[in-house]
Design a protein that fits this description.
Layout: E1 3-9, E2 13-20, H1 22-39, H2 52-58, H3 60-82, E3 92-94, E4 104-111, E5 115-117, E6 125-128, E7 131-132, H4 135-148, E8 151-154, E9 166-173, E10 188-193, E11 215-221, E12 235-249, H5 255-260, H6 266-300, E13 302-304, H7 307-325, H8 332-339, H9 343-370, H10 377-390, H11 395-405, H12 408-426, E14 429-432, E15 436-437, H13 438-448
Parallel strand pairs: 6-14, 7-15
Antiparallel strand pairs: 1-2, 2-4, 3-4, 5-13, 8-12, 9-10, 9-12, 11-12
């Protein structure tokens, strides 16, 4: 009979201290020596004919090693089954020695599945921004679409910048460097439509009347609540240079243009544009509120996460980061050196992101389990239709691929997580904030990014 002592360690890790009785140790030694007797060759004896006592004396060290390996594997499996434990990785064993005439004691340390003690997930308070889409916003969006189809013509070399012109503007900041080093700074190039921005600190407010290749120093005072935090409240001096001046002739907003974009009428174009903006705003405001709620759920819950799971997620995030910059490597230090960042800080960031991702998934999965959520077949069908549309295939073709790859479970898991997210939003205490304009809404999002 085994003597097993359980010890719970950190990070979903378990240690078993196991004592194997001497009778089982002896039985294993006998089995090993009988096997060795039949396969080893000793001088003066035919294979398998040497006396057992001689085999035991000659191959004691080999037997010790094999007996230990056999007992570690078989006893560990028996112990975890007896204790109803679920290892998710191979255990690490430790023992001092093994002796034929004594019990065998060892420890096995192994990781178990992650656990979560879910905190409160109903009735959580969150703010939700409200953004009004008015006629001015719709008109601005439509004009932005018209600009993509505008006829662009270069102005004469002696022409000056006027409102409505599309200008290639070269810019470099010069207030934060010594005057002797300003010449060596590189210009950054931007394409702007002069007079379009409603922002008082926009550079296009300062370039009217300038000519091609003309340079000018511009002082800009940014408000304290400027949406770019690096510039908020600062007084900045720029050197601007006009790289090109073009006229823009927008297409007429008529039936012909609407049909070119896939609409039947101008009114339909305007209506669908408003719908698009309202959908965008709703998704973002609702998404921001959901993020607040989920953050609180995650913080209120307690977790035990095995380190191997975190390392695996770190590796996935690292590969995704490498793909995003088009550089393939398995070495974090090499990648960090290429990007000019500290390897240790980068690894810490990956670990934090990986841990947060796992905690979020665990929380939503547990909510889905507790609320006994089921996959909505209608939503599953919608996912298939969207995949089919993106890949220019039929739903039947996508279903066949999913069956071949056995990937339906992955889609269903994502749907359940989405369902859990919707559930905590629907059961939250949402406070609608004072409505703001679309322009202010986009700037606010810029401040957070």
């Amino acid at each position: 009979m085994l003597n097993i002592i359980e010890k719970k360690l950190e990070n979903a890790t378990m240690e078993l201290q196991i004592d194997v009785p001497v009778e089982r140790v002896e039985s294993e030694y006998q089995a090993v020596f009988n096997k060795l007797k039949n396969i080893v060759k000793i001088d003066g004896f035919r294979k398998g004919k040497a006396p057992l006592q001689m085999v035991e004396a000659r191959f004691r060290e080999e037997a010790d090693q094999e007996v230990a390996e056999n007992l570690l594997k078989s006893v560990f499996l028996q112990a975890v089954e007896e204790k109803q434990l679920t290892p998710i990785a191979f255990p690490k064993y430790h023992f001092d020695k093994i002796s034929r005439d004594a019990p065998f004691s060892f420890t096995a340390t192994f990781e178990t599945p992650p656990t979560i003690e879910l905190g409160r997930y109903k009735g959580i308070a969150a703010d939700e921004q409200v953004c009004e889409i008015d006629d001015t916003t719709v008109k601005s969006e439509i004009n932005a679409i018209r600009e993509r189809f505008a006829k662009i013509d270069k102005k004469d070399e002696d022409a000056v910048v006027e409102n409505g012109d599309m200008v290639n503007l070269k810019v470099k900041r010069i207030d934060d460097v010594e005057e002797s080093k300003r010449e060596g700074l590189e210009f950054k190039e931007y394409q702007i439509v002069v007079g379009k921005s409603s922002d008082d600190s926009a550079l296009d407010k300062h370039v009217g009347g300038m000519k091609l290749d003309e340079e000018k120093e511009v002082d800009v005072k940014y408000p304290k609540d400027y949406y770019l935090s690096d510039l908020a409240g600062q007084k900045v001096k720029y050197l601007v240079k006009i790289g090109a001046i073009n006229t823009m002739e927008l297409p007429e907003l008529d039936e012909e243009f609407a049909k070119k974009l896939g609409y039947e009428t101008v009114e339909e174009f305007k209506s669908k544009t408003r719908d698009h903006l309202e959908k965008y705003v709703l998704e973002k405001t609702k998404g921001d509120a959901k993020a607040q709620i989920l953050k609180q759920v995650v913080e209120d819950s307690a977790y035990e996460i095995p380190d191997s799971m975190i390392l695996s997620e770190m590796d996935r995030l690292f590969k995704r980061t490498c793909d995003s910059v088009g550089y393939q490597t398995n070495n974090i230090e090499e990648f960090a050196g290429l990007m000019g960042i500290d390897p240790g800080a980068f690894a810490d960031q990956l670990r934090q992101e990986a841990t947060q991702t796992i905690k979020t998934t665990l929380a939503l999965s547990e909510i889905s389990r507790k609320e006994e959520m089921k996959v909505d077949e209608t939503k599953y069908r919608e996912v298939l239709e969207n995949i089919a549309k993106r890949n220019n295939k039929t739903v039947e073709e996508i279903e066949k691929i999913i069956t071949e790859n056995d990937s339906r479970g992955n889609i269903e898991t994502e749907l359940l997580l989405d369902g859990a997210m919707d559930f905590i939003y629907e059961n939250a205490k949402i406070k609608k904030l004072k409505p703001i304009s679309f322009d202010e809404f986009t700037k606010n999002r810029g401040r957070r990014s």
